[in-house]
């Protein structure tokens, strides 16, 4: 990202393109819309600060997700502020994240997965990342990323089957 004479307008295009995705990603990790917004704001603040310190550095969108992930986990460690899915109402989900309401059952089932498996599924299906990109982001091997995805899919399928038997 070398923005030279653009002033500060360049940050607006990054926020417009990646802001919602970063916020939703943080929401997947934290399950709290206010904290997710804080994570997004902090992520873009760090992007801006990094650009000021290193104006010739080329920044990639994956960097944003790494910063968001680390900051979200810092919040979890220091504040332990999470909201269980059963405390989030359908109206809150629909209002804060349009189009998600139909996936409330899926979100309930995802809650039963390990956080890292849930994150792998989200990166793979929502961001359309390859297993190589997921592996780099999580600092694991591509084989480990594929294994996590496979286990997460199997577990999710098992949960879906059990839930459909109950309905």
Strand content: under 5%
Main sheet record: none
Cα distance spanning the termini = 51 Å
Number of strands: 0
Order of helices and strands: HHHHHHHH
Q: Helix share of residues?
A: over 70%
Unreliable runs: 1-5, 97-102
Dominant shape: globular
Compute the average pLDDT. Answer: 80
Structural class: mainly alpha
CATH topology label of the largest domain: Rna Polymerase Sigma Factor, Chain: A
Q: Kindly give the count of domains.
A: 2
Notes on the structure:
It comes from Sulfobacillus benefaciens. This is RNA polymerase subunit sigma-24. GO terms for molecular function: DNA binding; sigma factor activity. It holds the Pfam family Sigma70_r2. Belongs to the sigma-70 factor family. ECF subfamily. The protein is an all-alpha fold and 167 residues long. The protein has two domains: 83 residues, Orthogonal Bundle (Rna Polymerase Sigma Factor, Chain: A); 66 residues, Arc Repressor Mutant, subunit A. It is built from eight helices and no strands. α6 packs across α8. The protein is globular, with a radius of gyration of 17 Å. It starts with 8 loop residues before the first helix and ends with a helix. The N terminus is likely disordered.
């Amino acid at each position: 990202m070398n923005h030279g004479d653009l002033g500060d307008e360049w940050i607006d295009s990054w926020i417009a393109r990646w802001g919602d995705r970063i916020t939703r990603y943080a929401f997947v990790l934290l399950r709290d819309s206010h904290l997710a917004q804080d994570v997004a704001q902090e992520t873009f603040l760090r992007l801006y600060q990094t650009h000021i310190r290193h104006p010739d550095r080329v920044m990639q969108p994956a960097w944003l997700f790494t910063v968001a992930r680390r900051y979200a986990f810092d919040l979890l460690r220091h504040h332990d502020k999470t909201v269980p899915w059963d405390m989030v109402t359908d109206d809150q989900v629909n209002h804060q994240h349009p189009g998600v309401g139909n996936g409330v059952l899926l979100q309930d089932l995802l809650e039963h997965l390990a956080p890292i498996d849930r994150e792998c599924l989200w990166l793979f299906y929502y961001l359309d990342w390859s297993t190589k990109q997921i592996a780099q982001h999580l600092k694991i091997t591509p084989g480990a990323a594929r294994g996590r995805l496979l286990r997460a899919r199997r577990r999710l399928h098992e949960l879906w089957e059990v839930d459909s038997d109950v309905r």
